[in-house]
Amino acid sequence: MQIRRFRMGDEPALFGVFFSAIHEIASRDYTQEQINAWAPADLDRALWGQHVRGLNPFVVELHDEIVGYADVQPNGYIDHFFVSGFHPRQGIGRLLMERIHQEAASLHLNELTSNVSRTAQPFFARHGFELVAQQTPVRRGVAIPNASMRKALPAAS
What we know:
Elements: E1 2-5, H1 11-25, H2 32-38, H3 45-55, E2 58-62, E3 65-70, E4 77-78, E5 81-83, H4 92-106, E6 111-117, H5 121-126, E7 130-135, E8 138-139, E9 142-143, E10 146-152
Parallel strand pairs: 4-6
Antiparallel strand pairs: 1-2, 2-3, 3-5, 6-10, 7-10, 8-9
Helix pairs in contact: 1-3
């Protein structure tokens, strides 16, 4: 596995990771209605791609296939963190989390925050994130519960 920064043209593969993560993995913790509202097949790919380009995520490749991606913003917020639904439990998430922590250190951040799905909450907790609050955002008219989580980081030297 190798990790690198996003490159223009990665958007379709990243959408595949996003879509499969939700439809194949998160589907065990959400209803079909919630899954379809969160990651509809007819999602506007141009708008989605524009958003992902703005995130400038880290991308994990396995045998020249993109199998995961995640970002950390200059304020410490992790917007997207997805592992392909066809490649779970292979260390991809761990690799992404390690890279996010390296980036956080280089940015001299004192905390990381994210809105985390029910499915990902145990993973984030294993990596030192604490629950701040349960919340229920609405997408396309459907409530999709998640949690606000944060992790305090060691003081930057």
